[in-house]
Design brief:
With about 260 residues, this protein is of the alpha/beta class. It is about 45% helix and about 15% strand. The structure holds NADP nicotinamide-adenine-dinucleotide phosphate.
């Protein structure tokens, strides 16, 4: 299936591991050019090298820096403006459901979670606003979570911030449609990858986590990062040319609500 992503310049934040890394890989498989991002210098360079060896040095670029910080995002913009001139797609992937405090109604917890999970996307989209190609096409894809749809065991602030992503997508889609840019979000369920949050939770309570998955996920397993990446790549492709303002849930059937 031709997804018409050949040569498209895609920026993916938080992409030296986990879901973001798989998104970068799938875009590369479709012929796109990617800029990956992460904070840890060693890991980032190792992943850049790995992708360059597989897909070519001219296809993979790296920006090391915190994708939640405005000054870093401004530097990332400068770097991309010099490198590519324009972008064709942005995936605002940075996010974290790991609580920083112990109290669910601690305001610091909320400020931190909103900063990582919602404001990072707002800043990214705003900062890159002038860097779209004038060809009346482009894609913005944000990352929500099933915590925005169902009452699960997630931190409250994370659930609320990821709900904010859904609202942001709806409003941005309306606004950006005039410029031919589509805006959507993907809503992952429980995604396991080695080194990720679920591995940490499994190490704390292996039986409990597996019972939770068996009981709550009709497909009775974790998602793989590739399964989330496929949804992102589809939304960014011409196969999704009439889809904007939507949220694509990839959760093995976990969300039970009828929306
Ligand atoms: N995993 C799940 O089950 C799940 C479920 C629902 C939604 N989601 C959402 O999906 C997205 C990706 O999830 P994930 O599990 O793959 O996340 P993750 O494990 O936190 O992502 C790891 C990647 O993000 C980078 N990263 C983390 N914080 C960063 C920052 N501030 N700036 C730049 N890079 C940063 C890491 O590199 P460095 O550490 O080197 O920076 C690494 O490359 C998030 O928005 C998350 O909320 C995940």
């Amino acid at each position: 299936m031709d997804l018409s992503l050949d040569g498209k310049r895609m920026l993916i934040t938080a992409s030296t591991d986990g879901i973001g890394y798989e998104i970068a890989k799938q875009f590369l498989k479709e012929g796109a050019v990617v800029l990956i991002n992460g904070r840890d210098v060693c890991k980032a360079k190792e992943k850049e090298k790995k992708l360059q060896e597989e897909y070519g040095r001219d296809k993979v670029f790296l920006y090391i820096g915190d994708a939640t910080k405005e000054d870093e995002l401004l530097r990332m913009r400068e770097y991309i403006a010099e490198l590519w001139g324009t972008v064709n797609g942005i995936v605002a992937n940075v996010g974290s459901g790991k609580p920083v405090g112990t109290r669910r109604l601690d305001l610091l917890e909320w400020e931190n979670s909103y900063s990582i999970n919602l404001f990072s996307a707002v800043k990214l989209i705003d900062i890159f606003d002038g860097l779209w190609e004038e060809e009346k096409s482009g894609n913005i894809i944000l990352m929500s979570s099933i915590a925005a749809y169902d009452v699960i065991s997630a931190p409250y602030a994370y659930a609320a911030a990821k709900n904010g992503i859904r609202t942001l997508v709806k409003y941005l889609a309306d606004d950006y449609a005039k410029r031919g840019i589509r805006v959507n979000c993907v809503v992952p369920g429980n995604v396991f990858y080695p080194g990720g949050r679920w591995e940490e939770l499994l190490s704390q309570d292996y039986e409990g986590v597996h019972q939770h998955i068996d009981k709550n996920v009709p497909l009775k397993r974790f998602a793989r990062p590739e399964e989330i990446a496929s949804a992102v790549v589809f939304l960014a492709s011409e196969r999704a040319s009439f889809i904007t303002g939507t949220a694509l849930i990839v959760d093995g059937g976990q969300c039970r609500g009828i929306f």
